[in-house]
Automatic annotation (TrEMBL):
This is Amino acid/amide ABC transporter membrane protein 2 (HAAT family). It is found in: Cell membrane. GO terms for cellular component: plasma membrane. CDD domains: TM_PBP1_LivM_like (cd06581). The keyword Cell membrane applies. GO terms for molecular function: branched-chain amino acid transmembrane transporter activity. It is a multi-pass membrane protein. It comes from the Bacteria. The chain crosses the membrane at residues 34-51, 58-76, 82-103, 110-127, 160-178, 209-229, 249-271, 283-308. Keywords: Cell membrane, Membrane, Transmembrane, Transmembrane helix.
Length: 335
């Protein structure tokens, strides 16, 4: 896709996000979309380490919970202003990600995934059992809404929607800059082959660790935003099921693309809303759908579209075979 067409597409999506409240029927629809935006931000981070770097982190929801509980604990128990707590949510998740990454990234393939799944479960248990810090299974109640910024107040679903949308726009812009930079190319080189990346001067461990830290930074910021939006936290946010939901969003939208996780993360909550009558059979319904997508649309919606565009452009650039010489008129023959 040409840069001009890409800019037009992003501009249309931005305009659609601004105009959505005009189409929403009620505040409930604004709430559903705002929640989808928050998880889209976290899914962008997961896509960086999975889709661009090739490391499947199953503890991603745990880092999102770290960011959320950072805001909840600081604002409720220590009366720290929301925006300071929100900034620290990304910092704490990143610092923890540094120590987890140093250990886990020495492993490869499914060993890395199994290790991070164990780390994620430990994070869930810490949140659930450490009553004096996290309030245990009861959770944290009464998290304050984001503090006003000048004349802007965030006390209504509409104002919270635009706040979440603005944070998502900034997150997408930053991710675009990262993935299009030399650093982003290094991530993709690691995904293709550690040995090949090392042969061209890339330090695999340092590069993977940086990708891991950037990924969990997005998770932490999404968690902090989630805490200020929902205003209640429970240990379930750290469950592996949340990471599974983000993974489904990536696969549906398209791994290793910038737009794919956004499409998947925004589409899946609405699909779940319209299938609420099947809530008890959620995995029975989504499981076969996911299998069919992996078989027939392995690159996701956006990935398949981009692949089709590449094939079409290649076909248009391919030289056409010369047409056969036309028959001579009047039956003239050479002697």
């Amino acid at each position: 896709m040409s840069p001009g067409a890409a800019r037009i597409g992003w501009a249309v999506l931005f305009a659609a996000g601004l105009a959505f409240p005009l189409l929403a029927r009620n505040d409930y629809h604004l709430t559903v979309m705002s929640t989808a935006y928050i998880f889209a931000l976290a899914t962008l981070g997961l896509n960086l380490i999975v889709g661009y770097t090739g490391q499947f982190n199953l503890a991603h929801s745990g880092f999102m919970a770290v960011g959320a509980y950072t805001v909840g604990i600081l604002t409720v128990d220590h009366q720290v202003p929301f925006w300071i707590a929100f900034a620290l949510s990304g910092v704490f998740a990143t610092v923890l990600g540094f120590f987890v990454g140093i250990v886990s990234l020495r492993l490869k393939g499914h060993f890395f995934s199994i290790f991070t799944m164990s780390v994620g479960y430990i994070m869930f248990l810490v949140i659930e059992k450490w009553d004096s810090l996290t309030h245990g299974p009861v959770g944290i109640i009464g998290i304050p809404v984001p503090s006003p910024i000048g004349p802007l107040r965030f006390e209504t679903p509409l104002s919270l929607y635009y706040l979440v949308f603005a944070v998502l726009v900034v997150g997408v812009w930053l991710m675009h800059r990262i993935t299009r930079s030399l650093l982003g190319r290094s991530f993709m080189a690691i995904r293709n082959s550690d040995a090949l990346a090392e042969s061209i001067g890339i330090n695999p461990m340092r590069t993977k660790l940086l990708a891991f830290m950037l990924s969990v930074f997005y998770a932490g910021m999404a968690g902090g935003l989630y805490a200020g939006f929902v205003r209640f936290l429970g240990p379930g946010l750290a469950g592996v099921e949340t990471t599974f939901d983000m993974t489904v969003s990536m696969i549906v939208g398209g791994l290793g693309t910038l737009l794919g996780p956004l499409v998947g993360a925004i589409m899946m909550p609405w699909l779940a809303q319209y299938l609420q009558f099947l809530q008890e059979y959620r995995f029975i319904v989504f499981g076969p759908i996911l299998i069919l997508l992996v078989i027939f649309v392995p690159h996701g919606i956006v990935g398949s579209f981009l692949a089709w565009r590449v094939r079409r452009a290649a076909a248009q650039r391919a030289p056409r075979a010369p047409s056969p010489p036309s028959a001579t008129v009047g039956g003239n023959r050479h002697a």
